[in-house]
């Protein structure tokens, strides 16, 4: 699923750490903003809406829109308010479609 | 440390300036901020920006280090990473920090919660690949991340600034698609030009940005209408009409912007009175000349009080702090007024350009009155048509419309649909925005998990409080070492 990213990064990262996003094993810069790191790694869809299942990704990057919600080690969090840490297990918030 | 004399929410220019001014007047001050480092969104991560980032982001951005350095060198308890989710009488603040909650009490409160991007509902705006122009800036400031094939669309000087920063970074945008009309909007703005010339530095900066964009060969369209983002699972192109014909620009990222609006969530949760500002097309809190609200002890400074930009925010923070210091008995009225006089003159100079900007770069009309099938509530996926139908069924205000449609009931709690819902209802019922009102804001202001609540640090003794405060202090030291 991570493809050619629509984003590029100015700085070469210091330390890369393994992070799992759904089925993808990623190496992300330690301490980087998680939403930014996932976008730069080519992750397009962060979650599917509970109402219609429509894909969503970061929109405001400042903790206000909640479109970048992901489940980190099982807890729903705003990706834009988190930093990358080693061994994060990230899933798209699951089981929340209206048809259950 | 006992309860502080003043609690400030937000460490942007208003919050930082207020904290430093109040602490220098002798008050004990705590600043709670959601971000890991001070600066707010405008000066986000300014302390970590090296010369390379500084050259891209510009001198106005790097100016923020003056405030962050002042904050560090003043005895202020800055608590980063603190997400305030409830403000009760007294004022008792509940917040989450890390994986647990905590509370503190302060007799005076300054809200410096800044601005949000004005919601820009156009077809396709919820798709991945569509972000706000502010989000692009945050990606650049905080992470050095840039969109490779981006179109900037909407209205306002921020679009020029973001585009110029992208040019400097070597990743110019594919195009600027402006909804303002080069004729009408600019001509209407001309009557404010004499005022704007008093703030000539702002005008000169704007013209400089435009010149850089022209040299870089970035295509610009004005008077664009019928904006729509195309794509199935993500943004693939921006479609619009300009210069008498239809355009389609293939891209990976669409950056939307048509102004910023005060973030009023915290103030509204305290039932602070607000009124509609027609020039800014937004609700603003009703304030006295010091930033005092109709709730004694509650002050607001910065863009959360009405959009004025970073310079105005810094001054407003200082003015509020002077009044708070006077009320707390640390300054006489004469001392307060003597310090305030030059600040008021500086603020008038800073504000001189606002009427010109607000008129020359009005919000995109079709995003203020979206088509029926355009989503306005991103969280609950409610369209403009559903809001209009709710109005036809008798909904006069946003709280009723929320019950009918769920608009504003999702996790963003109306931050990105509130103004759209008010505008749609006001138009459909032929009432003013003031009469229509705004959705009631209740705690929790931000989601809080049960585990974070269960881990709440409920302090009953002074000793516990000391312990709690001590644990926050090291972050201050870490900042200094960084």
List the helices and strands and how they pair.
The complex is a heterodimer of chains A (100) and B (482).
Chain A: E1 7-9, E2 16-21, E3 24-29, H1 34-40, E4 47-48, E5 55-56, E6 69-72, E7 75-78, E8 89-91
Parallel strand pairs in A: 2-8
Antiparallel strand pairs in A: 2-3, 4-5, 6-7, 6-8
Chain B: E1 6-9, H1 13-24, E2 29-32, H2 51-57, H3 59-62, H4 64-72, E3 77-79, E4 82-88, E5 92-97, E6 100-105, E7 108-111, E8 115-117, E9 130-132, H5 133-143, E10 145-147, E11 150-154, H6 157-168, E12 175-178, H7 184-189, H8 193-198, H9 200-215, E13 220-221, E14 225-230, E15 237-242, E16 245-250, E17 253-257, E18 260-262, H10 265-269, E19 274-277, E20 282-285, E21 298-300, H11 310-327, H12 333-351, H13 354-360, H14 365-368, E22 375-377, E23 382-383, H15 384-392, H16 398-405, H17 418-429, H18 433-436, H19 450-454, H20 462-481
Parallel strand pairs in B: 1-2, 1-7, 2-3, 7-21, 9-17, 11-12, 11-17, 12-13
Antiparallel strand pairs in B: 4-5, 5-6, 8-18, 14-15, 15-16, 19-20, 22-23
Helix pairs in contact in B: 1-4, 1-11, 6-9, 11-12, 15-17
Task: Give an account of the 3D structure.
- The complex is a heterodimer of chains A (100) and B (482).
- Chain A is mainly β and 100 residues long.
- A five-stranded mixed sheet of chain A has the order 3-2-8-6-7, with helices on one face.
- The longest helix of chain A has 7 residues.
- The model of chain A has no long low-confidence stretch (mean pLDDT 90).
- In chain B, 53% of the residues are buried.
- In chain B, helix 1 runs parallel beside helix 11 and helix 15 packs across helix 17.
- In chain B, the strands form seven sheets. A five-stranded parallel sheet of chain B has the order 3-2-1-7-21. A five-stranded parallel sheet of chain B has the order 9-17-11-12-13.
- Chain B starts with 5 loop residues before the first strand and ends with a helix.
- Chain B contains 20 helices and 23 strands.
- Helix content of chain B is 40%, strand content 20%.
- By secondary structure, chain B is α/β, with parallel strands linked by helices.
- The radius of gyration of chain B is 22 Å and the shape is globular.
- Classes of the chains: A mainly beta (100), B alpha/beta (482).
- At the A-B interface, strand 1, helix 1 and strand 5 of A face helix 2, strand 9, helix 5 and strand 10 of B.
- Strand 1 of chain A pairs antiparallel with strand 10 of chain B.
